[in-house]
Amino acid sequence: MGSTTRGVFFFMPCFCFIYIDFNKKELHMSANRIRGDSTLQINGAAVTVAKGMTLLAYLTEQQYVLERIAVEYNGNIVQREQYGKIVLQEEDYIEIVSFVGGG
Amino acid sequence: MEVVINGKKTETSCCYLQELVAGQQGQTLLYNGYQTEENLPLQAGDQIVILPRGVMPDRDSWESMLAARHTPPVHERIRQGAVAIAGLGGLGSHIAVMLARAGIGKLLLVDFDTVEISNLNRQHYTVRHLGMPKTEALAMQLQEINPFVQITTKQTTVCAENAAPLFADWPLVCEAFDNPAAKAMLVNTLLADGQKQIVAASGMAGYGSANQIQTVRKMKGLYLCGDEKSEAVVGQSLMAPRVQICAGHQANMVLRLLLGLTTP
After folding, report:
1. Are A73 and A26 found together in one domain?
2. N or C: which end of chain A has fewer CB within 10 A?
């Protein structure tokens, strides 16, 4: 092993460490890819869901009453009949407003 | 120097306010928007509004009163404003009253219901309105608050089928329904084309802290007022203060939007 090769092996872990530190999001996304999850923004918070989950499945899982909500999906209002057709994607941003009675 | 009296530029040699209005006793005096009886020194460009006390002034005096109160550019934008109010209960009736007082140009008032005794704990109606359609009872009151607001009324139930045509000419809509499914239906229907702005409400029942009621911009076209939690249910009914606070949030957001401000 030449001195150059030895140097590369010595420095490589340092670079990896720096790489990991500065690319947490990247790493998170790769971990998601391995596990088959998607991380998206829902009501301003990062939420990880199983890959392939539909908007309807998420709303049902979270026990939203579908008649009482409005959903903005990546900047546009989506209607109730579309919820089942939308598959949640990495980096989607979703706002769900759930109305309570009174006025 | 030149001052503005009741909207008209006027040359005067007077140095003090009381000197200027001498001989006009029994008048209400607004000096740069503030009601005063003091003898303040005059400066060029001062806005002075002199209104007869106890009688209805003509439209010009009325407009100059509002312009003096709110400043001319603010008054002009509100006067050009048109707002639809969906639901004329505790929220809608008060929103309409506040916007009429602020000098709004046009209002569309929509409700299917009539005034009942159970409404009087929080809605802007009185005993004399019992049994009347809310559209009519409210329009009557608004005409007495601001005779120059143009009012259109629709006594109908808003549903997914008629919402879009009903509000087609109204880019700014206040959601003021009671029923949560109706609230969601209106927002979903009217925001579908991405053109409208809705100021909606959710969570204002009971007597929890008034400080929890706030305005939040939830979506591109949706502002939401309320605490988002306090539902009208058995044991937690709607009461005048929180409902009116929430209506105040909605009316203020409407004014902000009319004045070109998009932050809550």
Report:
1. no
2. N
Same structural domain for residues A103 and A80?
A: yes
Q: What domains does chain B contain, in order, with CATH numbers? A: 2-70 (3.10.20.30), 76-258 (3.40.50.720)
Residue A6's domain comprises 1-35
Q: Report residue B13 as tokens.
A: 């040699």
Find all residues with CB under 8 Å of A66, minimum gap 6, and list them. A59, A80, A83
The arrangement of strands across the sheet holding B34-35 comes to B8-11, B2-5, B47-52, B27-31, B34-35
Same structural domain, A53 and A87: yes
Q: Do A19 and A67 lie in a common domain?
A: no
Tokens of B171: 């880019």
Residue with tokens 């007869």: B52
Q: Which residues of B touch A75 (CB under 8 A)?
A: 220
Mutation target to probe the B interface, by most B beta carbons within 10 A, among A72, A74, A77 is A77
**CA closest to B90 among chain A residues:** A103
Answer yes or no: do A57 and A67 share one domain.
yes
**Cβ-defined contact of B176 to A67 (cutoff 8 Å):** no
Which pLDDT does position B54 carry in this prediction? 86
Q: Are residues A1 and A30 in the same domain?
A: yes
Kindly determine whether residue B200 and residue A99, on different chains, have CB atoms separated by under 8 Å. yes
| Residues A64 and A81 both lie in one domain | yes
Q: Around B156, how many Cα atoms within 13 Å sit in the side-chain half-sphere?
A: 13
B43-91 residue pLDDT tens: 999 989 888 888 888 898 899 899 989 999 999 999 999 999 999 999 9
Are the C-beta atoms of A40 and A90 separated by less than 8 Å? yes
Number of domains in chain A: 2
Q: Which residues of A touch B192 (CB under 8 A)?
A: 77, 79
| Chain B interface includes A82 (CB < 8 A) | no
Specify whether A49 is located in the same domain as A98.
Answer: yes
pLDDT tens digits along B2-52: 999 888 899 999 999 989 888 777 788 899 888 888 999 999 999 898 888
